[in-house]
Amino acid sequence: MTSHQNGRRPTTSDLAGCRILVPRGGPPGEQLAAAIRTRGGLPVIVPLTTTVPPQDPAALAAAVERWNLGCYDWLVCTSANGVYAVVAAGARPGMRRIAAVGPATAEALREHGFEVAVQPDHDFSAVGLAEALLTVIGTADGSDAAQQMLLPLSEIAGTELEHALTAAGHAPHRVTAYRTLPTPRDARLESRGRAVDAILVMSGSGAAETARRFAPLPPGTHLVAIGAPTARALASHGLRADAVATRHTADGLLDTLAALLDRAAAPTTDHPELPHHPEGRSA
How confident is the model at residue 27 (pLDDT cuts 50, 70, 90)? Predict the structure, then answer.
């Protein structure tokens, strides 16, 4: 396998022959599976979670109506699912500004006519989004300067983003846009999931389901987390990530897996007398 650096796309099949569990279904899962095939890998789609509407859709509908009326200065989106939810609730592009956590979210916004004004350069996380947004709008000195912000989030999303914005004097309005639930158990699919070389872990809820369905992992199965929060979620469930992506995107995740496979395939000359113990089985 051939490694690559600086985010460049591979020129060879750097995932050749690797069976990779894709934890998402629907179009996002198919897109990720297609990217894996392009790089020579063998995707195994086993959806672990699914998104459903909020238990109180009226709150989202009211927030979207306020957005359409111009009551917010910013729409701050942390996932493509949040974008789809506000669009389904009737959100329309307007003169207010949009912030997106990363490329996939920005693409979902643009697909529906929203122009993205702020996006982190590299840290595609809530913390990175808060830093990028505050670099543009700064700290509010008083209530008149505070920016009104609509944050359509998952029911289980963390509070880092809203806390950072509130601490800077702004007025984020968090609303539950969707819920993330475990998919129904399927013995056939889970059996396929146990026969893979790597599992992509893309969220805290995905980490919980990976542990619930597949722990203890078969020897040699690599766990690759999309970011540090997801790696910590794995650890909280007794699993350790073999690698953590520094670019929090699907391509960044696959780049990280390719580099991990390169390292695993490289001959080891140090301490040849020591037996190999695969990592990632437990925290």
Answer: confident
Residue type, 24: R
Q: Pick from 105, 201, 204: which is nearest to 151 by CA?
A: 105
Condensed to tens digits (0 to 9), the pLDDT of residues 38-70 reads: 999 999 999 999 999 999 899 999 999 999 999
pLDDT in tens, 158-178: 899 999 999 999 999 999 999
User: Can you tell me the mean pLDDT for 184-208?
Assistant: 94
CB 227 within 8 A of CB 245: yes
Q: Is residue 103 located within the same domain as residue 201?
A: no
Domain end residue (candidates: 158, 180, 202)? 180
Count of positions (residues) in the chain: 283
Q: Is the pLDDT of residue 31 over 50?
A: yes
State how many domains the chain has: 2
Same domain for 58 and 175, yes or no, is: yes
- pTM flag (> 0.70): yes
